[in-house]
Amino acid sequence: MNKKLFEDIGKRVKKRRIELGYTQEYLAEKMDVSIQMISGTESGKKALKLENFIKFCEILETTPDYLIKGRDPTSILIEEMEQLTDTQIERINAVIKQCIEMCKEQNEQ
Predict the structure, then answer these.
(1) Each residue of 51-88: b (16+ CB within 10 Å) or e?
(2) pLDDT per position as a tens digit, 6-34
(3) Which terminus of the chain, N or C, has less C-beta within 10 A?
């Protein structure tokens, strides 16, 4: 992997960590790694083992696609939906509305 990719992943890890209100110390503890590893990752100076990459995704509640490419799940969904017809989008909206109603009903119980 190239240096630019490590730097980009590191920036996204840091951004997501801050969005969640986590300190480097907290993240290191949750991942069972050193603070230096977190710092090295965020600065793009440390290569990630696959197992740590997966832990970052889980603990930071994000996707590999976001950490690698900067694409969040919402933008991926929008890209997918842009390829659908109006009728297909209307059907999806109907299903989503039904799901929301079911969730509301469950919350009321």
Answers:
(1) ebbebbbebbebeeebbeeeeeeeeeeeeeeeeeeeee
(2) 999 999 999 999 999 999 999 999 999 99
(3) C
